[in-house]
Amino acid sequence: MQRLVDWLGRLRGGSVDPNYKVYTRRFDREVTGEDLHRVLGRPSARVAAGLEEAWANFQGALLAWRMGCELAALDAAVAVRTTVSKDELADTVVAILMDQSGSMRGQKMLLAAAAADVAQDFIRQLGCKVEVLGFTTTSWRGGLSRRRWVSRLKPPNPGRLCDLLHVIYRSADDTRASGAGFGFKPMLRPDLPKENVDGEALEWAASRLLARQEKRKLLIVLSDARRSTTLPYWRTAWTISSGI
User: Fold this and answer.
1) pLDDT digits (tens, 9 = 90+) for 177-196
2) Which end of the chain is more exposed for a tag (fewer CB within 10 A), N or C?
């Protein structure tokens, strides 16, 4: 965990990439999965149809795959409990951070959501706290941040020109029981994936972990590993290591 703390300290201090700038944070948003419509609007007929199709696949077509994963998780749980005490597990929190950029649209997002669902259920059954987070932007090509920059005659070297969208699908303090697709249906909206700013998303997820009282903290990133829009952050982020 100390390596995570050191990394975040360097990130906040600017030494990871001293040239990285943010033009404005005014239009960045953080919402729960249930409140995504407040940012994206109510789904159009086309979007709603795509969402229902994805949800049907999530609940049906992936059922055999999910059952196989759950059986493997039972064996893994036995192995974990033989080496880690109940108190240690209770003092552990895990954050699953999902890349929801455009390259993840469709089948990739469907599989990532299913993997996150199986993982969060497994982690909760062990007695650990778990949260599921997602990151993208509110719109393509910069959104309101870029429009503001253009309206001010495009001052040079503006830095990051897009509106971040960070989504909390499950918080670590949520005590509701797990189930197939717990709160994940909004994650499958076909109009959700857009741009990605990985470094700031990692900082956000890490900050949430560091604010918690649990001794053991683990950050897992689900991504297709396409090139980041904040590559210096991304390279450093891979040095994060922590575990049970």
Assistant:
1) 765 566 889 999 999 999 98
2) C
Q: Is the dihedral of CA 105, 108, 111, 117 positive or negative?
A: negative
Does the pLDDT at position 65 exceed 90?
Answer: no
DSSP state of 186: G
Nearest to 213 by CA among 169, 167, 173, 166: 173
What are φ and ψ of residue 223, in 5° steps?
-155, 155
**Could you tell me which of 132, 129, 133 has the C-alpha nearest to residue 244?**
129
Radius of gyration of the chain (CA): 19
Round to whole Å and give the CA distance between 137 and 196.
Answer: 7
Q: Where are the domains of the chain?
A: 2-237
Neighbour-count burial of 54, counting CB atoms closer than 10 A to its CB (0-12 exposed, 13-18 middle, 19+ buried): buried
Cα(10)–Cα(199) distance, integer angstroms: 12
Q: What long-range pairs does 87-92 form, CB within 8 A, spacing at least 24?
A: 88/216, 88/244, 89/126, 89/127, 89/128, 89/244, 90/127, 90/128, 91/214, 91/215, 91/216, 92/128, 92/129, 92/214, 92/215, 92/216, 92/217, 92/218, 92/244
Q: Is 102 exposed, middle or buried (0-12, 13-18, 19+ CB in 10 A)?
A: middle
- What is the value of pTM for the model shown? 0.86
- Residue 25 CA, distance from chain mean position: 19
